[in-house]
TrEMBL record:
Disordered: annotated span: 139-163
Stated name of the protein: Cellulose-binding domain-containing protein
Annotated PROSITE patterns: CBM2, CBM2_A
Segments of skewed composition (Pro residues): 144-162
Signal peptide: 1-32
One of the Pfam families matching this protein, by short name: CBM_2
Amino acid sequence: MHLRGLRKGLIAVALTACLVGAAAVSTITAHAASAGCQVTYAVGSQWAGGFSANVAIKNLGDPLGSWRLRWTFGAGQTVSQAWNAVVAQNSGAVTASNVSWNGSLPTGGSASFGFNGAWNNSSNPVPTSFTLNDVACTGSTTPTPTPTVTPTTPPTSGPPPSRTVRVYWLKPADVAYDQRYPDGITKVVQEAQRFFKQELGKTFTLNNPVVEVVNGDQPRTWYENTPNCGDKYWWSVCNMQAELRRKFGLGAPDSRWINVGEISAEGDGAGGGGGNGWVILSGHDADGAAGVNGPMNRWYGGMVHELGHAFGLPDASSTDGTCMSASLYSYPNCHFSQTQKNNMLNGPYGSFLS
């Protein structure tokens, strides 16, 4: 979640997509894919303050169209330069993703990359565990855990009650199911629900289950690289929103629900935002909610901020202590101003608060 409200994205979607339509009612029974991987991590050379390492990945499970390897450094090591992968680091947590030419990993296929880094001149231990596309690399294959039934359209009993906040996790077709994501996103929006009650004396209603898991129609790279809503910042989240609208017959805005969508896809520079009764967030927010990308207060504050946009608030003009400014990064030490409270209570979605 970047500190950026959703304006151009929703305007473009509203102008180019149909606002009404009947959604088919169906469910898809998820199958258990074979998932597994093996990682070899080797320090190639080491010198005062620096080192180089090489990492080899072998896919033991079903073919992958793209890959994302994660590990955590235990002694303060940092990555300074990488090749054959895009590497990002948040504190000790490291994520290495494929580049354009080495994303395909067939069963038994391998990929490798390297990097230069810094260490403390005292200890440079090899990471103890790795995950590939959020599946633990144990050197063997295991069935990917999946729910018995994953809804892709409203359940047969009908859509959730109106005037509620409706939450979705869109899982691209090539991303393994991971229970941490619906569980984590649930906790984040429940914390936002608690915070709204604390600040406003009223709050919004969530549905049961809180998160609707949606099997995406496309692989992750399609959401990341198919243009939608202008600049690339919006592509992943606008492609998600378009699919959710088509599958669930949603409007933008929609008078029945405030809609919150998170997708396990990101792409270069991707983010998200909120506005017009929507919150749409990309992969790093979903990862953060699942507890695999930074401290949780960051993602709690981000959700409060974007729901503020969904309820009609603009960004604050300065870091002013309100959650609609960069003060969100200090959550829970940010608040809504009295003007912001009044604007939400009297705004287009004020009737959703009780």
